[in-house]
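Q: I have 255 residues here and want to know how they pack in 3D. Can you give me a structure?
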Amino acid sequence: MEKIQHVIVTGGAKGVGAATCRVFLKKGYRVSILDIDSIAGNQLEKELGDSSQFYLCDVSNQAQVNETVNKTIAKFGDVEVLVNNAGIQLYGSITETSESDWDRLFNINLKSYFLCSKICIPSMQKNGKGVIVNVSSVQAYITQKNVAAYTTAKTAILGFTRSIAVDYSPLIRAVAICPGTIDTPLLRNALEESPDPAQVFKECEEMHLLKRVGQPEEVAELILFVAGDKAGFMTGQAIRLDGGLGIEIPGSKRG
């Protein structure tokens, strides 16, 4: 009988994380949801049913990560797939960003990836295979003003992904996903900080060649694909899912 696989999704309660939990569940995985939003996490667990479990966990805290991942393994078995997705967005240039904000963003957007991978890799090795999918951003390649900490952390994820691929092949693969603008609570919360959220959302649509923002389900389906056997020859790579953002020369005319 085929073994039922186990996926851990960090930042799994909302947005891309929640969409990822849904597509893996439909594929037959057991799904462990890690997040600090207990209301959204428990609602998602109720929606997904007995094949899922929500865990309240600060993934930037090593003790919490170790305790929680061990609980997930006790419930659903060794980890086949880890989706490192937890993240926040803070705004500011280098000189405007406080040390505490810099550390907070890096702890969530990068250190958590290290901590979760560190404990999941031995479980994958015991299982004989595994895939780590790291959610980065198109801002690992291009950037906007006043996101110094965010774009730096998202860029570092690409090197982190390559390091896992090199150090733990052939049993473990690692792939980074680099979305453009995705319609998530993270985006909506950022828009609310602007004087005209509707106008800024329209600008987000216009800056992509496809003239829209992406949907969480589109990112989730790509994560599912790269974690599966059909992508079994892929490792150490970063894939942009960005609606063509940043590939057109500014001011160029299409003829």
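Q: Anything worth noting?
A: The CA atoms of residues 92 and 146 lie 4 Å apart. The beta strands are 6-10, 30-35, 52-56, 81-84, 130-135, 172-179, 237-241.
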